[in-house]
Specification:
The protein has 216 residues and is α/β, with parallel strands linked by helices.
């Protein structure tokens, strides 16, 4: 029996996926999560064969979820499920350990194929995602210009904190959620704002939304 974990904060999306996947003989949905942290906890407990993870979820987005699931359950293949497919996101997801990237617009036709591909130990990308990856590869062969914008690389912890701040959580709440001290949160927050070049929470929220770290 193939065990599949679904993680998406929209009930209708999870129901649709469940219907499509349970039609396949020998597959079962072993768990469903509405937040990123719940997805990690379920993956640790259930050890699913495949985890289908929405990129934009409350508390912990798909990049953080992927990274933590890969540590909690090495056997689990992660399929990112999203509407977004820019080059930076794809690179971040692959770096976090995902093996598949499926656009929500392709789900009805391709989600079963995507899961089958991952179960064979092969990567899976939607056609549009493959095009984005190819364009990025070709572009990387060109020399950067003096006007190129360098996007700061955020650590997994920094991505967690910027998402929680952008979602409106206060330092005390973030400290409780992450199991760290308030002073540590404040230190991360100060360093993070300096790193991305913002001076207010409003600017930080705009940065998080612009870079698909959280939903508007």
């Amino acid at each position: 029996m193939v065990r599949i974990l679904l993680a998406d904060d929209h009930d209708v999306v999870r129901r649709g996926l469940r219907v499509l996947l349970q039609e396949h003989a020998g597959w079962e949905i072993c768990g469903e999560a509405m937040t990123g942290r719940e997805a990690v906890d379920l993956a640790r407990e259930m050890q699913p064969d495949v985890a289908i993870i929405d990129l934009m979820m409350p508390d912990l987005n798909g990049l953080g979820v992927t990274s933590q699931i890969r540590k909690a359950s090495e056997r689990t293949q992660v399929l990112i499920f999203t509407m977004h497919h820019n080059e930076t996101l794809i690179h971040g997801v692959l770096e976090a350990g995902a093996r598949g990237y499926l656009l929500k617009t392709d789900a009805e036709q391709h989600v079963v194929t995507a899961v089958e591909t991952l179960l064979r130990g092969q990567p899976y990308f939607s056609a549009q995602v493959s095009e984005t990856v190819l364009e990025g590869f070709l572009r990387s062969g060109r020399h950067a210009t003096a006007d190129s914008v360098v996007v700061p690389r955020l650590t997994p912890r920094e991505r967690e904190i910027i998402q929680l701040l952008a979602e409106g959580h206060r330092n005390k709440k973030i400290a409780q959620m992450l199991g760290i001290s308030i002073k540590t949160v404040e230190t991360h927050r100060t360093a993070l704002m300096r790193k991305i070049g913002v001076k207010s929470i409003v600017e930080l929220v705009r940065y998080a939304v612009r870079n698909n770290l959280t939903e508007p």
